[in-house]
Amino acid sequence: VFIAQSRASGSHRDVEDEELTRIFVMIPKSYTEEDLREKFKMYGDIEYCSIIKNKTTGESKGLGYVRYLKPSQAARAIEECDRSYRAILAEPKNKSSESFEHDYYSNNTRQESRGNTLPFCGQPEFCNFEKNESRIQESVSKRLSVVSRLPFVQEQLFALFDLVPGLEYCDVQRDPHTNSGYAVIQYSTAASAIYAKYKLHGFEYPPGNRLTVIFLEDGSDSSE
Question: Where would I find the RRM domain in this sequence (predicted)?
Answer without folding.
Answer: 21-95
